[in-house]
Design a protein that fits this description.
Subcellular location (chain B): Cell projection, Cilium; Cytoplasm, Cytoskeleton
Oligomer: heterodimer
Strand order of the largest sheet of chain B: 36-38-39-40-37-41
Number of strands of chain B: 41
Domain BBS2 hairpin (chain B): 568-662
Strand content of chain A: 35-45%
Largest sheet of chain B: 6 strands, antiparallel
Protein name (chain B): Bardet-Biedl syndrome 2 protein homolog
Strand order of the largest sheet of chain A: 38-40-41-42-39-43
Helix content of chain A: 10-25%
Shape of chain A: globular
Largest interface: A-B, 81 and 81 residues
Number of strands of chain A: 43
Strand content of chain B: 35-45%
CATH superfamily of the largest domain in chain A: YVTN repeat-like/Quinoprotein amine dehydrogenase
Distance between the termini of chain B: 61 Å
CATH class of the largest domain in chain A: Mainly Beta
Domain BBS2 platform (chain B): 475-553
Keywords (chain B): Cell projection, Cilium, Cytoplasm, Cytoskeleton
Distance between the termini of chain A: 60 Å
């Protein structure tokens, strides 16, 4: 990549602690310009520590055991005494402040939240904002001032700077894909995000810009946007899409160049990358877009990134914390750069550095040997007497923790679920199991041996597979492709880390609802059924409670909050990007209404809910209104795509033959391709251009064909026909689908024939 | 530690294993130029000249047969060795003449050329459809041998340290066989089709399998292996330490060098774009005085690398940098190791402190693991539930290295069926996930190692009753083995799962088996006089047994006599006679197709004439005729294809028969049978062939 040449950073490893969250690391301000900054880390085991790097080695200034996971760490700077910083932490429901030099407890405050605090903001001793998964709380002078209950999970919280925007304006990034701003205890503005769910919000240039109204957000689908959140409401300035649809976990600004261009944007991504973007200043924000100047794969999901001077005086650096608990730097202090300047001072430093490194190596070696001995002893005795607890206290800056993290994300582009497994210690094996008919695809960068058990011999479990990992594998990815169907299933992962005595396996399970390929989207404005294309609808009535209905919806569709919303009538909206279909659901006690142009989806939810209701012995009456128009629009959309795909497949095959013929011709004449018609030349050219990316598309032709057949079957079934799949017309359609010569109109004609009544 | 020295474009698609480098003396001034030589997808060989004079010039050779293997000649640098579906061809490109051409009826799957064993002469070995064949440069056959499956990789390696190279062959059923002087000395079983074999230093060789495993053997012991999903393999000394590293090329454009002894990655690089690597070569094709590592992508881009140390200008700098890098890498590894150890210690301590209650309960839980040959049975007593069972065993399972069973709902006993398909002594690592008392999301893992004997899939059944005459099995193999019955009993007890009562008799052992998974019957009877009779419906089971017996008792020479049922005899005769029929059809089809091609050509000329004459109706007629002619050609080709694959199948069956029957003998008797069978096959004397394979060669 030529772009990354603009910024050269080199990785330096520091320490490993227990697992980290996106707010569990902060930097203290430095004692002087370009001086080293100290690192504050609070990990999920409850250890808060202040680390400074001396000669490349971490040194613990103090360490406090807070007993319960540290979810947030922030630094409180007292404006009167800027040198006396206070480290503020959030553990469970408690906010505590520690002095930055000795780690002395300065204040402690118990909030009245029920769940642990997830987000923390503190501008001064008076103003405190905390939030947990659903509740936002503002304390003024230790008293609760404002309160807000969100319907969806709160993923990110930012507060506009009080010195520029005097009225307290908190921004909440919520799971429903909106960023909300609050005024006191009520909603004020709403910014719907079109790609994904907001997962990180950061003030522009870390201070909100000159007006303090500029914020930057990152989403779960790799989108980053700049918003001006003025008093009148939010306006988006620019939006960029990262190369992969991955979660943005952390955003920070830091000025690497020292020029006037302003600070650069550092992006931490869940797919292990740290990116740096050169962003335009506020004035240019509308017409200049950001450029990527650095990108590096760090082999671990990133939890947090912070720009600062950490390892060496004078060299800017990105401090990276991974979710597994590794803390390392990406430093501009590069050994080769120094060597290229043959002035004596740096040369001497290089040498010193070299010998330092050798010393460190020696030290580490002896340490590891010692630990190995300890370990074998402990294993033999298996009693706690042999374990010198004092050693751990004295020697170690930190230590890892046996813990496993797993995540499942839907990637719409590929219509697949990505599962990422990360472990603090290396993984021995993983067992993947699912009762649904899913396809498991190995990801190439994995270093594990995948064995899939033949599903026919293995009872109800449709997928049983194992990954046997090589030593030192701590991260593993896999891809699941799952069609929508009429059951809701669990994917189970049993992850066994390679530790002895006692050996464990962690169970992580995820739900694949029956409409798992839908994504939740925004609300009515963007989502209206026009009068000319009435959607099909399915109404279910019966003696069920709102909670029952909510549970069914949760099992069917992704990203619905587990908690039952407080409203009397609940609305959710979804879309399926593969078929470009939409689905709306509204329900209350005793009634659920689905509206969709996709009859297949309606048929799946009908099957699923009636089955669920039967097990609970709830009587349901169903009423379906299936319109031909909606289905026709869907057909007009999907069938050409199918044709296009088959066509492309044929062109690829033809390209091979043409290229061979071309080599024949080259052998005879001087290599011009004039003998080919323009069409053929295009085919060869197109083939040359997109050769590597074509492979994964091959499976989807069958998906499209199956979908169209499903559509036909569902459509007919809703019209009361029985055994559609064994009918003559069904097989006729199936044959027609494989034929590229069939035009969409002809297909639709056949699809529709004998189908005079539009509404039953 | 490698530096990129050159990038070129071939502008041609390259296929895995079908690219090499030839050198030409350029006219009188004797300057050597190198060219890339590779196969195209349609029966052609391209020569892409790299010399400045002939730059961008591509020369083609028409071969008219599907090219399956290609390599360069060590003594004639301008010659190329080609293997096709029916021929072996050594062709001098510079002189434009055929050095050697040989018909290989079975088709070539892999080819290697060089001097090996005790001879100094260059020989060429081809491997294909269950056979190996060795020719000298005059084209006369030196020897012939049978293999258990299609030969997919060949290499010449000094694996025993006697200073001579020997032949190493890998097959699609995952066998690695080492040959000395035409005789197999060692067989190693791997888990999937062997795709690459490459000689390294110090009697080591690297291998790659179709499932993506890469590893290194030292003599017959495996040093290491990793899963890598690689598509090309080479050996090249990256760090100039005198020992070549194993270079692995990945399909997504990455390549790395691994240390031959440890498998550690010492160097890795990703090519700048989405290029799929298909070939790795080592040659001094840029005339730089040191061989380059040449990496070629599917679309024909070629990268050449040299070890950095050779760039003298910056030698010190790079060395220093390497040392720094190595140190930093070492530090990182040590930190990881330290963290892992700390975590484990912490883990132990944590459990020592907190899990005392749970431990005491767990101690009462008794787990028994049994194996009834088809299933692994697990029984938990004293409470507790099994959630899942995972069995790891390399080389045992058809799809991968493990077999798993998930129990829903969890139960206290489990039955895991074992689809064993090979005769292999292996340890089953049975991992059982048990419900834990503390939490729903954390399960206990118990690992039990359960050994399986070599012939675990031979299921002991009661001997057929005497009153009912047991139906005769297809093959009855008789051998004489001068061993005491106790020793035979010992062999059986060690390698089979049988109850000891069956071995109690002093005078004879009679055992009946069903071989899983098909339940093929097999009977062994041994009388104290040393006469051994093995009956079975399948000869390969018998030959496996005899080979194992011979190794166990260290028998150097063993003759045997095979009796065959009438049915089977008929089948064999039919099989062999069928070959003649297929060959006849094939010839006729070839003639037909040639005729048809001529006809189409004539129609084409006529259509051109008609076009020039502006005779549209005539032209239309000709085009219609061309179309129907073309259709017929396609049909003929399809018939020819199916005929060819059927023929190949039959030849494979015959080779397998020779392989199995020769393996019922040991030592001289075995080689004699192979030699004699070869003679008979060549003479197409099938009666003789059957006689030889059944009764051996009379001396």
């Amino acid at each position: 990549m030529q772009l990354s040449a603009k910024l050269k950073l080199q990785r330096v490893d520091y320490v490993q602690v227990a697992s980290l969250k996106c707010n569990s690391i902060q930097l203290l301000s430095s004692k002087g310009v370009k001086h080293q900054q100290k690192v504050v880390v609070g990990d999920q085991r409850g250890i808060l520590q202040l680390i400074s790097i001396k000669k490349g080695e971490p040194f613990v200034d103090f360490k406090v055991d807070l007993k319960s996971p540290v979810n947030c760490v922030t630094i409180l700077v007292n404006s009167n005494e800027p040198t006396k910083e206070i480290i503020v932490t959030a553990t469970q429901q408690t906010v505590q402040g520690f002095s930055a030099n000795k780690g002395k407890l300065i204040f402690k405050m118990d909030t009245n939240l029920v769940e642990p605090i997830q987000h923390l903001w503190m501008a001064s001793k008076e103003e405190l904002v905390v939030s947990n998964s659903y509740v936002y709380n503002h304390y003024h002078d230790g008293k609760e001032a404002n309160y807000f209950l969100s319907t969806d999970r709160i993923n990110a919280v930012a507060v506009l700077p009080l010195n520029k925007v005097p009225s307290l304006t908190p921004l909440l990034g919520c799971q429903d894909g909106n960023i909300y701003s609050l005024r006191d205890s009520s909603l004020r503005h709403r910014l719907p995000i079109d790609a994904g769910i907001p997962t990180a919000i950061q003030l522009f240039q870390n201070d909100g810009g000159t007006s303090g109204e500029w914020v930057i957000y990152g989403t779960s689908l790799g989108q980053i946007g700049l918003v001006r959140w003025s008093r009148a409401g939010p306006t988006v300035q620019w939006v960029i899409q990262l190369p992969s649809q991955t979660t943005v976990t952390s955003l920070d600004f830091y000025d690497f160049s020292g020029s006037d261009a302003g600070a650069q944007l550092i992006v931490g991504r869940e797919d292990c990358y740290v990116d740096v973007y050169q962003v335009p200043s506020e004035d240019d924000a509308t017409h200049i877009s950001p450029t990527l100047i650095f990108s590096q794969n760090c082999n671990d999901s990133i939890a947090a990134v912070r720009g600062g001077i950490i390892g060496t005086d004078g060299f800017p650096e990105i401090l990276v914390a991974t979710q597994r608990g590794w803390i390392f730097g990406l430093t501009s202090c590069e050994s080769t750069i120094r060597r290229k300047q043959p002035d004596e001072v740096t040369a001497a430093r290089t040498n010193a550095h070299g010998s330092e490194r050798r010393k460190q190596l020696q030290y580490l070696k002896s340490e590891v040997e010692f630990l190995e001995k300890q370990f074998t002893e402990a294993q033999n005795n298996k009693s706690r007497a042999s374990l010198p607890a004092s050693l751990m206290e004295k020697e170690t800056t930190t230590s890892a923790q046996v813990n496993v993290m797993a995540k499942m994300n839907f990637v719409g582009l590929e219509n697949a679920y990505y599962i990422t497994v990360e472990s603090q210690v290396s993984i021995n094996f993983i067992l993947v199991q699912c009762d649904a008919n899913v396809q498991l695809v190995d990801v190439e960068r994995n270093l594990a041996i995948l064995s899939v058990v033949d599903s026919q011999k293995n009872g109800p479990s449709r997928l049983t597979a194992t990954f046997r990992c090589q030593s030192n594998t701590t991260r593993l990815e896999m891809k699941l492709i799952c069609a929508e169907r009429n059951t809701s299933d669990q994917v189970r992962l049993y992850i066994s880390p390679s530790i002895q005595e006692p050996r464990l396996a962690f169970l992580k399970s995820f739900r694949l609802g029956c409409l798992c390929n839908h994504v939740r989207c925004h609300s009515p404005e963007s989502f209206q059924w026009s009068a000319s294309t009435p959607s099909s609808s399915l109404t279910l009535r019966g003696g069920f409670s709102q909670a029952d209905a909510h549970n069914w919806i949760v099992s069917c569709l992704p990203n619905v909050p587990e908690k039952v919303p407080a409203d009397e009538e609940i609305h959710f909206y979804f879309r399926n990007d593969q078929w470009h279909s939409k689905l709306a659901v509204q329900y209350r006690r005793g009634e659920i209404v689905f509206l969709s142009d996709n009859v297949v989806a309606l048929s799946h939810v009908r099957d699923f809910i009636s089955k669920e209701a039967t097990t609970k012995s709830i009587q349901l009456t169903m009423n379906a209104e299936v319109t031909w128009e909606a289905t026709e629009i869907l057909l007009h959309h999907v069938h050409p795509l199918l044709l296009d795909m088959i066509h492309r497949r044929q062109r690829n095959a033809l390209a091979l033959a043409l290229k061979e013929a071309a080599t024949d011709q080259l052998a005879l004449s001087d290599g011009d391709a004039d003998w080919m018609t323009a069409e053929f030349r295009d085919i060869v050219q197109a083939d040359k251009e997109n050769q590597p990316s074509n492979n994964h598309q091959y499976t989807t032709v069958e998906q499209y064909q199956n979908f169209l057949l499903d559509l036909f079957a569902s459509h007919r079934e809703f019209h009361g026909e029985l055994e559609v799949r064994s009918s003559h017309k069904f097989s006729l359609l199936a044959n027609m689908l494989a034929d590229t010569a069939v035009r969409t109109e002809a297909f639709i004609e056949l699809f529709r024939s004998d189908d005079s009544s539009t509404v039953v | 530690m490698l530096t990129l020295v050159n990038i070129t474009e071939l502008n041609l698609s390259v296929f895995s294993g079908r690219l090499t480098i030839c050198k030409f003396h350029d006219g009188a001034d004797a300057e050597i130029t190198s060219s890339c030589v590779g196969a195209t997808s349609a029966n052609k060989v391209f020569i892409r000249h790299a010399s400045p004079v002939q730059q961008d010039q591509i020369q083609y050779l028409n071969i008219d047969q599907n090219i399956t293997a290609l390599c360069s000649h060590p003594e004639h640098p301008a010659a190329v060795v080609l293997g096709t579906t029916s021929h072996l061809l050594i062709y001098d490109i510079a002189e434009n003449k055929t050095v050697m051409s040989k018909e290989i009826e079975n088709g070539v799957g892999a080819v290697v050329i060089g001097s090996f064993d005790d001879s100094d002469q260059i020989n060429v070995i081809v491997g294909g459809n269950c056979f190996l064949q060795c020719f000298n440069m005059e084209g006369s056959e030196r020897y012939w041998n049978v293999m258990s499956d299609q030969v997919s990789a060949l290499a010449l390696i000094d694996f025993d340290g006697d200073g001579h190279n020997h032949l190493l062959a890998g097959t699609e059923d995952g066998n690695l066989r080492l040959f000395r002087n035409g005789r197999m000395t060692t067989e190693i079983k791997e888990t999937d089709a062997v795709t690459f074999l490459i000689a390294l230093t110090d009697h080591c060789f690297g291998y790659a399998l179709a499932n993506g495993t890469v590893g290194v053997y030292h003599k017959r012991n495996r040093l290491w292996r990793v899963k890598n999903q690689i598509v090309a393999l080479a050996s090249f000394d990256v760090d100039n330490d005198g020992h070549p590293e194993l270079i692995c090329g990945w399909s997504h454009g990455r390549f790395d060098a691994r240390h031959w002894q440890t498998g550690e990655v010492v160097f890795k690089e990703k090519l700048d774009a989405q290029h799929s690597i298909v070939a790795l070569l080592v040659d001094d094709w840029l005339q730089m005085g040191h061989a380059q590592l040449i990496i070629c992508s599917q679309l024909g881009q070629v990268w050449s690398y040299l070890p950095s140390d050779l760039e003298l200008t910056s030698l010190d700098r790079i060395k220093d940098e390497n040392a720094t890098q190595a140190e930093e890498e070492a530090i990182r590894r040590l930190i990881i190791r330290k963290q892992n150890l700390l975590a484990e210690l912490e883990h132990i301590r944590h459990h020592a402190e907190h899990a005392t209650v749970a431990e005491t309960v767990d101690d009462e839980v008794q787990l028994t693991v049994k194996h009834d040959q088809e299933n692994v049975l697990l029984e938990l007593e004293g409470g507790g539930l099994i959630h899942a069972v995972i069995i790891f065993a390399e080389g045992l399972f058809p799809n991968g290295e493990s077999h798993a069973l998930h129990l829903c709902p969890p139960s206290s006993s489990a039955k895991v069926s074992l689809p064993v398909q090979r005769n292999l002594a292996v340890d089953l690592h049975v991992n059982i996930l048990l419900e834990s008392h503390s939490s729903n999301d954390i399960l206990k893992v118990v690992e039990v190692v359960h050994p399986l004997p070599t012939f675990s899939r031979f299921k002991s059944v009661p001997w057929p009753s005497r009153t009912k005459n047991p139906s005769a099995l297809h093959f009855r193999v008789r051998i004489r083995l001068q061993e005491r019955i106790q020793r035979i009993g010992f062999w059986i007890a060690q390698n089979f799962i049988v109850s000891p009562e069956l071995l109690a008799s002093e005078s004879s052992i009679e055992l009946a088996f069903e071989v899983l998974p098909c339940g093929t019957p097999l009977r062994i009877s041994f009388l104290n006089e040393g006469s051994f009779l093995i009956e079975s419906d399948r000869l390969d089971h018998v030959s496996d047994l005899i080979q194992h017996l011979a190794t166990f008792f260290n028998v150097q020479q063993l003759a045997s006599d095979i009796e065959i049922s009438e049915n089977q005899f008929k089948e064999l005769t039919e099989l062999m006679e069928g070959v003649r029929g297929h060959q006849a059809i094939r010839q006729r089809l070839t003639v037909d197709m040639a005729d048809q091609v001529n006809e189409v050509r004539n129609w084409f000329n006529e259509s051109e004439n008609a076009r020039l004459m502006n005779d549209m109706s005539e032209m239309r007629r000709s085009y219609a005729a061309i179309q129907s002619g073309n259709r017929q050609l396609v049909d003929l080709q399809n018939i020819r294809d199916s005929n060819y694959s059927e023929l190949m199948d039959r030849l494979k069956q015959i080779n397998l028969h020779v392989q199995n029957s020769s393996s019922c003998r040991v030592g001289k008797y075995q080689t004699d049978v192979i030699q004699a069978s070869r003679q008979a096959i060549r003479a197409e004397d099938f009666e003789q062939l059957i006689k030889i394979t059944l009764h051996g060669v009379d001396n």
